[in-house]
Amino acid sequence: MRLLNLSLLAAKHIARNKTRSLLTMVGVASGMFLFETIETMQEALGRATETSAKDNTLVVYRENRFCPSTSRLPEHYGKDIRSIEGVAEVVPIQIVVNNCGTSLDVVVFRGIPKADSGFISKSAKFEEGSIENWMANDDGALVGSNLAKRRNLKTGDRFNAAGITVTVSGIIQSSESSQNDNVAFVGLPFLQQASRLGLGVVTQFNVKVRNSTLLDSVAKEIDLRFKSDAEPTTTKPEKAFFASTAKELIELVRFSRWIGIASVLAVIGLIANTILLTVRGKISEFAVLQTIGFSRWSIGWLILSEGVILALFGGIMGIGTAATFLHFQNLTIGNEGLAIAFVPNLTVTATGVGLSLLVGVLAGSYPAWRAGKNSISESLKTT
After folding, report:
1. Closest by Cα among 154, 181, 150, 159 to 170
2. What is the pTM of this model?
């Protein structure tokens, strides 16, 4: 109870100095806004590229090709891949993107045979429309939720990108792959003709194996089978494939972590400096408090509480602003067919709030020690 009362007294000190406190909180909010945004980017990157034990999908791509427009494989490769032991499912996919380089507004079309649409309906939740509506329309598209928000699309709308015009037959949210929330699924024959690549040619094959332990052996068998063909292949686990094809994007996002760390250090310095100035201006007050019975530990806790309150409220302001900004802006960075959407989640938000508390403790510790170390006589001499 005593510590709570001291914390309330610290809050009153903060409220008494409105301008100083508000400016400090705005500075903290700016730093935590940057940190929250960067951590959201890091988390999205991890979900898109880090392989887990549950992953059982391989991507068969044209050897020494990266951009989808340069990867061309005969569709009949699918029959040979299906005959390999351990393969459970093979889906030929044609990919068309509006920009193969790094872009903030990438639109990815994935053409798949409508007969193989079961993997969509199994792993996706329909926010609008239905699979039946998509099956009935040749130019229909099942649009991922992130792409739909970014382009303000609804069922029945028509939109054009990369020279492809489609009608939205449904909006889906995938529980299996975050990539599916950033693409538009269309019929394979329609996309082959609309992109003028011709029937019988695809960009890649997505291969599901019966067990994740078979990923390496099946990948080697696929590449060995087509090694001497006119179109040799390279086969990798899906997330490892994304990681290898978007190296520039990954390096850019990972470098941004240093900016996030720098922003946190700046916040610590800002709060510590503010509280040190407060301590220097209140030496006589602390002497009076000690005279009426406050211990050195109580004085220290009073200053530490002030640092924690400033950091916590400023951090919540910055984190809340960042989450709101990312939610409504629907930012997505794409590179070579890989699209990463920066969607805030509770894990990143909780991490930000916890870090704000830690920053407050770190920033307030030294000023609290300085305020509590002087005796009454030393404090009065200083004044």
Report:
1. 154
2. 0.73
Task: Tell me if 321 sits within 8 A of 165, measured CB to CB.
Answer: no
Distance CA 43, CA 76 (A): 38
Token pair belonging to 30: 């700016």
b/e for 9-28, b at 16 or more Cβ within 10 A?
Answer: bbeebbeeeeeebeebbebb
Q: Give rounded-to-5 percent helix, strand, coil for the chain.
A: 60, 20, 20
Q: What are phi and psi of 328, to 5 degrees?
A: -90, -25
* Residue 299 scores a pLDDT above 90: no
b/e code 124-161 from CB counts within 10 Å (16+ = b): bebebbebebbeeeeebbbbbbbbbbbbebebeeebeb
Q: Is 87 helix (H, G, I), strand (E, B) or coil?
A: strand
How many residues are listed for the chain in this entry?
Answer: 383
For residue 110, the cross-strand partners are: 95, 185
β-pairing verdict for 124-129 and 204-209: unpaired
Burial letters 73-90, b for 16+ CB under 10 A, else e? bebebbeebeebeebebb
At 229, the amino acid letter reads D
Residue 223: the pLDDT is: 93
- Which string of DSSP letters, residue by residue, matches 166-205? EEEEEEEEESS-GGGGGEEEEEHHHHHHHTTS-TTEESEE
How far is it, in rounded angstroms, from Cα 129 to Cα 155?
Answer: 6
The label of the residue with tokens 């309150």 reads 309
Contact status, residue 95 vs residue 59, Cβ threshold 8 Å: no
Q: Token digits for 127?
A: 């926010």
Whole-angstrom distance, CA of residue 81 vs CA of residue 336 = 25
What confidence category does residue 365 fall into, taking pLDDT thresholds of 50, 70 and 90? confident
Residue-wise pLDDT for 222-242, tens only, equals 999 999 888 999 998 877 777
pLDDT at 379 over 60: no
Q: Which residues contact residue 50 at a Cβ distance below 8 angstroms, ignoring those fewer than 6 apart? A: 239
pLDDT of 220 higher than 90: yes
Q: How far apart are CA 38 and CA 15, in angstroms?
A: 31
